[in-house]
């Protein structure tokens, strides 16, 4: 990123995000091909089959960051956690029942947040994160982060996320840190 580039963040609902799928896919594929994720084209395809389902939720929201020429540089998306979620079941150690309680409004699940390499380390990630969460009525945000992604983990801690456990949320060998951001404080 050069000092002359202006980053614009556009917040959108599900139908707009579905129409912008190619931009979300470009950012995702670019970022998650790198270590520690090492995702393949098949992994990306699976993620975006799920993305299409998620965008149909009336509560889905997304934020897409791009430079002046429209090139996407970062993104974030998620939706409130449903009452019957299995998210809490993936933890390696149980959490108290009160923490597990979901009603479809209490917790916002931040599914993905990513910034492409040339734009990292310059505060770009915080912009789609803030845009995505602006105006939500949830008490907290739930986010899984790969512990080997040190820059992301450090940013989340700076933003107020705290680790509450570990989980293996996807099939595979890696444990992820499960983090929560309390929005009531």
Could you walk me through the main structural features you see in this protein, from its secondary elements to its overall organization?
The structure is a single chain. With 185 residues, this protein is of the alpha+beta class. The chain is 29% helix and 26% strand. The chain contains six helices and seven strands; from the N terminus they run E-H-H-H-E-E-H-E-H-E-H-E-E. The protein has helices at 14-19, 21-32, 41-54, 97-100, 126-133, 150-159; strands at 8-13, 61-66, 72-80, 107-115, 140-145, 162-167, 176-182. A seven-stranded mixed β-sheet has the order 1-2-3-4-5-7-6. Strand 4, helix 5 (126-133) and strand 5 (140-145) form a beta-alpha-beta unit. Helix 2 (21-32) packs antiparallel against helix 3. The mean pLDDT is 94.
Please render the helix and strand layout as text.
Elements: E1 8-13, H1 14-19, H2 21-32, H3 41-54, E2 61-66, E3 72-80, H4 97-100, E4 107-115, H5 126-133, E5 140-145, H6 150-159, E6 162-167, E7 176-182
Parallel strand pairs: 4-5
Antiparallel strand pairs: 1-2, 2-3, 3-4, 5-7, 6-7
Helix pairs in contact: 2-3
């Amino acid at each position: 990123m050069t000092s002359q580039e202006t980053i614009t963040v556009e917040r959108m609902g599900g139908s707009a995000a579905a129409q912008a799928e190619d931009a979300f896919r470009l950012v995702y594929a670019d970022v998650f091909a790198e270590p520690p994720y090492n995702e393949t084209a098949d992994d990306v395809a699976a993620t975006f089959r799920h993305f299409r389902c998620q965008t149909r939720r009336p509560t889905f929201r997304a934020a897409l960051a791009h430079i002046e020429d429209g090139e996407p540089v970062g993104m974030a998306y998620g939706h409130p956690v449903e009452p019957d979620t299995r998210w809490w079941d993936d933890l390696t150690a149980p959490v108290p029942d009160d923490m597990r309680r979901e009603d479809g409004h209490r917790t916002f699940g931040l599914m993905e947040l990513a910034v492409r390499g040339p734009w990292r380390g310059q505060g770009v990630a915080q912009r789609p994160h803030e845009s995505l969460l602006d105006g939500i009525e949830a008490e907290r945000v739930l986010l899984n982060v790969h512990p080997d992604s040190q820059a992301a983990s450090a940013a989340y801690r700076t933003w107020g996320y705290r680790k509450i456990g570990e989980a293996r949320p996807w099939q595979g060998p890696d444990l992820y840190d499960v983090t929560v951001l309390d929005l009531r404080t």
